[in-house]
Design goal:
- The structure is a homotrimer of 274-residue chains.
- Chain A is α/β, with parallel strands linked by helices.
- Chain A has one domain: 3-Layer(aba) Sandwich (UDP-N-acetylmuramoyl-L-alanine:D-glutamate ligase).
- In chain A, strands 2-1-3-4-5-6-7-8-9 form a nine-stranded mixed β-sheet, sandwiched between helices.
- In chain A, helix 4 runs parallel beside helix 5 and helix 8 packs across helix 9.
- Chain A is globular, with a radius of gyration of 17 Å.
- Chains A, B, C: One of its GO terms (biological process) is thiamine biosynthetic process.
- Chains A, B, C: One of its GO terms (molecular function) is ATP binding.
- Chains A, B, C: It catalyses: 5-(2-hydroxyethyl)-4-methylthiazole + ATP = 4-methyl-5-(2-phosphooxyethyl)-thiazole + ADP + H(+).
Chain lengths: 274, 274, 274
C-alpha cells in the first residue's frame, strides 16, 4: 500500500509549486527530483497563481517569510483550492514570532490544506493558539513520549477533524493522522535533526506524494514520512561507514530517496495504525 | 580550440556578476569557482550597476524573479552593455508564466545579450512569442530528435541572426549557434536533469567562458556546454561506482568541473559543426 | 583553553539568529548545526526583533543585502544590543559597492558589535573609509605577508580599540585581535577560497562560539578561526584521498566541524599570540 504511493509518484512525475524559504530550497528541489516529482519555485505575486495552475500541487513553507511572500502564499493557496490541487503547509518556526504564528493562522483561515506538517510545538501553536517553540526546534516540554503518545494522537485527530487536513507531527516518533486514523511511525534517526531542512524536505516530498495520490491523502502522507525516515536510516548507515558528518549525511539522505523503490519502502516502513 | 577557451578562464579568473534565483545560487557560485572564475551575487537596484562595473561579465537568470530583481536585471544589463561586458540570459521557466515570458522579452528589447540559454521550449517561447513550457522542463512536443534536428538548428541560427546573441539550446542534444554556424553537442547524461540547477550552472559557467573569451563567443559557449556535458559523464561514472543518487551527483559534477583541464576537454568533447 | 570554547558550544547549543545572504545560507545553517549550535534564519522587519529575542546571539552578514534586509539588520542589531546578546558582523563585499560600504558603516554606527570579520580589504574599507575590494575577494595589494604582518596586527588592535569589537581578518594568515592581544593563526588551506561561503560559514560558527562564551570573546573567536582552518586541513586530506573537487570539499569541511572535539582542536590549532 505505502509502496504503491511511492510508485505513483515515479509514474506520474507530479509537478509541485513551492513557495518556500531560501535556506533549504535547494534541498527541497533536489528531494522532489529524487522521489520522482518535478519542482518549480516561484513566490512573486505577479506569477504565483499562474504557476500553481500549471502544477499539480502546492507546497507552502513559512520559513524566512516576508510581507511580499505572505501575499503570494495566500494568493497561490486560494488558486490551488479553486483548482482542487492538494496543498500542504509547513509550519516551520510557528510560535517563534507573532508574524509566523499569525501568518499560519491566516493561511489556515483562508486556504483549505490537504496536509499540515510541523513539530509538536509548531502544531500546538497553530491548534491551541500559543506554544513554546524554541526557534525552529520543538520545545522539550512538548516532547512526544510513550506516556504522552495517546494524548498526542487524540490531539492530532481532533485537529484534523477541525481543519480537514491530514496532520503530520514529526519528531523521534512521527504521527500522521486524519480524524479517524493515525499512523504512528518509528522510522528515522537523530542525525536528521542535525541537518537543516529535514522537515522542509519531508514536506516537499509529501507534496509530491499527495499530488500523485490525491484520493489517499492519509496513506500518501504516511508513505512519505516512512520513506523519509527509512532513507534517514539508510543514510546514517552510509555516514557511519564513511566516517562522515552532517553535510554528507544530507547528500546521502537525498541519494537514498533517489534509490528507494516501492518494495524497499514496504519492507522498511515501521509503523502502527491507531 | 575548446581546450584553449577553458584555459583562458583559469588564466584570467573572470569576475562574474550574477543576478540569479535563490534555488540554485550556491551551486552557481561553486561551479564558477570550480571552472576558474570568481562569482559575485548581487540583486539590489542600489548596487547592481556598481557591482557589474567591477566585474567582467554578467549572468542574468530569471528563475524566482520578482518586481525588485527585474528592475535590477534591466539596470545591470544596460550598464554591462555600456561597458561592453558580455551578458548572458538564462530563460529558466520562460513560458510558464506571463511574468517570466514578458520579463524575458523586455530584457531582450532593452539589453544586448552575448548568449541566450534555455531548453527548446523556453527558447521557442522567446523566439516565437508563445510556447509550451511545462514548469521548468521542456515540453515533450518540443523535444529535439534526429528528425527535427535540422529544423532546430535553422531555427537557432535564425534567432541568433535576429538577436545578435549566441543561442544555446540544451537537452539530450545541445545546440550552440550563431547566425552562421552551429555546434551540435552530444556530451551529457540524463542524470543531469535529475538535479536542480544543471541549466543554471551551465549558464553561470558559460558566463565565465565568454568573459574570458570575449572575441570568440560561439567557441567559448560551445566549450562550456561540452565541458558541462563531459563532466556530467564523468560524474555519472563516479555516481554509479559509489551507488549514489542525485544529490551526490551534483557534488561530483562540480568536482569534475574543478578537475577538468584543456586537454581533457579536447579529448572528451563530442560535437559536430553544422 | 580553545578546546573549552568548543566544548561550551556543544554543551549550551546556542541558538543563533542569522540575517545573511541567500548564497551560502544553507551552508551557514549546516555548519551551525555541525559545531553544536542551532540556527534560525529570519530577515523580515515584522519579526526580526522577536526572533533575535528568543536567540542567544545574532549574525549579520551583508552579502546580497537589499533595502528590506538592511532595515532588518539595524532593527535586530539594536534589539540584540538591548538584550546584551553577542552580535557579529560579516563584511562580505564591503568596498565593492557604496551600498555595502555605507551599510557596513551605518551598522557600525548604530549597533555595538562583539566581533567584526572580513578579509583585509573589507576590514580596511570599513576602518579607513576606502579600500580596494575586488568583488568578494581581497585585493592583492592588501595581502598580508611576513613583511606587513606586524603593521596589520597593529591596525587590527587599533580598529578593535576604536570599535570595541574583536577584529577577525581572514586570509592565508588569520588575525584575531582585541585592543591588547592578537592571535596570529596559521591553520587552513587554499582550497577554502575555492568554495563559496567559507568566510560566511566561519562567521556563523564564530557567532555560536561567542554566544556560548560571552565572557571570552577573543578566545572564543580565535577558537572558531582555528577550528575552521583545522577542519579545512582535515577536509583537504579527505578531498585529495578521494580525488574530489571543491563541491565535495565543502561537505567534508562541514563534516569535519561536525566531528571536531576539544582535544582535537587543542592539538591541531597553530597560532601565536602577539
Amino acid at each position: 500500500m505505502l509502496g504503491k504511493m511511492l510508485e505513483n509518484v515515479r509514474e506520474k512525475t507530479p509537478l509541485v509549486h513551492n513557495i518556500t524559504n531560501y535556506v533549504t530550497v535547494n534541498d527541497c528541489a533536489n528531494i522532489l527530483l529524487a522521489c520522482g516529482g518535478s519542482p518549480i519555485m516561484s513566490d512573486d505575486i505577479g506569477e504565483v497563481e499562474e504557476i500553481t495552475s500549471v502544477c499539480g500541487g502546492l507546497n507552502i513553507n513559512i520559513g524566512t517569510l516576508n510581507e511580499r511572500t505572505i501575499r503570494s502564499m495566500l494568493a497561490a493557496g486560494k488558486k490551488a483550492n479553486e483548482l482542487g490541487h492538494p496543498v500542504i503547509l509547513d509550519l516551520v518556526g510557528a510560535g517563534a514570532s507573532a508574524l509566523r504564528t499569525n501568518t499560519a493562522k491566516k493561511l489556515l483561515e483562508e486556504v483549505r490544506f490537504s496536509v499540515i506538517r510541523g513539530n509538536i510545538s509548531e502544531i500546538k501553536t497553530l491548534a491551541l493558539g500559543g506554544g513554546t517553540t524554541k526557534g525552529v526546534d520543538a520545545d522539550v516540554a512538548d516532547k512526544v513520549t510513550d506516556e504522552t503518545l495517546d494524548s498526542v494522537i487524540a490531539f492530532a485527530k481532533a485537529f484534523s477533524e477541525k481543519t480537514g487536513a491530514v496532520i503530520v507531527i514529526t519528531g523521534a516518533t512521527d504521527i500522521v493522522a486524519d480524524s479517524q486514523k493515525a499512523y504512528v511511525i518509528k522510522n528515522g534517526v537523530p542525525t536528521m535533526s542535525q541537518i537543516t531542512g529535514s522537515g522542509c524536505m519531508l514536506t516537499a516530498m509529501t507534496a509530491a506524494y499527495i499530488t500523485a495520490n490525491p484520493q489517499q491523502l492519509l496513506e500518501a502522507a504516511a508513505a512519505a514520512v516512512c520513506a523519509m525516515g527509512l532513507c534517514g536510516e539508510k543514510a546514517e548507515a552510509v555516514r557511519k561507514e564513511q566516517n562522515a558528518g552532517n553535510s554528507s549525511f544530507r547528500n546521502y539522505l537525498i541519494d537514498e530517496v533517489y534509490k528507494l523503490d516501492g518494495r524497499m519502502l514496504e519492507e522498511g516502513a515501521r509503523y502502527e495504525i491507531c
